[in-house]
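Standup notes, protein team

Yesterday: finished cleaning the Geotrichum candidum set.
Today: 6,7-dimethyl-8-ribityllumazine synthase structure.
Blockers: none.

Input for 6,7-dimethyl-8-ribityllumazine synthase:
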Amino acid sequence: MSHQIKGVGKLDTAYDGSNLKIGIVHARWNSTVIDALIKGAIEKLKSFGVKESNIVVSSVPGSYELPFGTKVLSESKEGPFDALISIGVLIKGETMHFEYISESVSHALMKLQFDLNKPVIFGLLTCLTEEQALARAGVVEGSHNHGEDWGAAAVEMAIKHNANKN
Ligand code: DLZ
């Protein structure tokens, strides 16, 4: 038996993402880590057949702006989107209000998906150090890129949600 510790695990089915439109909203703080996470998410979306032209990427200053930035993109003329991915990196050492931002952004993103009635994938890394953040973005040799999980989660949740609407 193989043990999967990190990542979204084995998917139930080979999802077809070729008709999906996905919005990615990312913060610009900690850009090395952010760039790697976005790349991982986009590569995974494309591996499910999501067309590059159907992936819209938009940025906000910092993670605190993610919930509102995600709402703005979702309601913009760029949509409608089947799912959104909100990506940010909070590093405790760099912010006195780490706990406040982490908690409020987590709650706001959870609530947003019910308000929008569409999946909003939680791509917020909350790390104690920059090394941890780099290791969660696949930047460190042999480490796992969580952005890939978020891409896979977006496709799975979009397809499950769309099937429920029809
Ligand atoms: C202010 C701040 C700090 C200190 N650290 C981070 C961080 O590690 N990651 C991040 O995404 N954003 C950080 N910010 C910016 C806030 O999220 C926000 O952009 C500002 O407080 C303006 O509302």
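Follow-up from PR in the comments: The radius of gyration is 15 Å.
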